[in-house]
Amino acid sequence: MGRSINAFRSWMAETLSHAVGNPREEKMTVPPAIGPQPYRDDPRSGR
User: Fold this and answer.
1) How many alpha carbons lie under 13 Å from residue 8 in its C-beta half-sphere?
2) How far lies 3's CA from each of 14, 22, 31, 47, in Å?
3) pLDDT, tens digit, for every residue of 10-45?
4) What string of DSSP letters covers the chain?
């Protein structure tokens, strides 16, 4: 009985993760920004 309850809890957690979304996974799949980007070059090399 305890094994089936743990399996059900695991299934519910996975179902909610798919329904609501996982922020960690969503951050990894964000596409790059489109359009001109600000220039951020800050050269550190000196003469």
Assistant:
1) 5
2) 17, 26, 41, 68
3) 999 889 888 887 777 777 787 777 888 777 677 666
4) -HHHHHHHHHHHHHHHHHHH--HHHHHHTPPPPPS------------
